[in-house]
Specification:
It contains 6 helices and no strands. By secondary structure, the protein is mainly alpha-helical. The longest helix is centred in the middle third of the chain and has 35 residues.
């Protein structure tokens, strides 16, 4: 790769692709979330289900899209200049776990609105899986716990950014 010709060409070649990947993955995350809402809400028209979801969980939906997109950007950016982040797999796996946790809990808050009827079934299984006390906490505090999931997502993205910065410093020193 000949980046000597122009610093701008080099910058665009290496940073636009990770940025586009991050945006694309963030948008896909939001689309999949809304798709699950529509698929699990046969009692409401798709537009009504999406509208109710956006009114109640817009911060969570946007946060998941931005957090996952940011993680993908950081991972792709690190890979584009040959950075080897030792924590990358753990971080991406942890971020996926945070996303699953956040989405799972955020769907519970939609059940009283008539959204996500399938999640009523999931709620009925919680006591047999986690016990009555934990299930009650998960249901009662689903919204705050969803925000905790966002903290996990952004925490892992921050950890990746920190490791990337450390790796860049190490490469400049040597």
């Amino acid at each position: 790769m000949d980046c000597i010709s122009s610093r701008l060409t080099c910058l665009l070649r290496f940073e636009m692709k990770p940025l586009l990947k991050g945006i694309l993955v963030g948008v896909i995350t939001v689309i999949v979330y809304l798709g699950v809402v529509v698929a699990t809400t046969p009692a409401l028209a798709p537009i009504d289900a999406i509208s109710a979801t956006l009114q109640l969980n817009s911060i969570i939906i946007a946060g998941m899209g931005i957090g996952i997109g940011l993680q993908m950007y950081l991972s792709s950016y690190a890979k584009s200049f040959g950075c080897r982040l030792a924590i990358k797999r753990k971080t991406f796996g942890g971020n996926s776990g945070g996303t699953a946790f956040t989405s799972f809990l955020s769907f519970f808050s939609l059940v009283p609105l008539g959204c996500c009827g399938w999640w009523l079934y999931a709620l009925s299984l919680l006591p047999s899986i986690f016990g009555t006390g934990i299930s009650a906490v998960l249901i009662e505090y689903s919204q705050p716990l969803s925000y905790l999931g966002l903290v996990i997502i952004f925490g892992f993205a921050g950890l990746t950014a920190y490791k990337l910065r450390q790796e860049k410093r190490l490469l400049k020193i040597q």
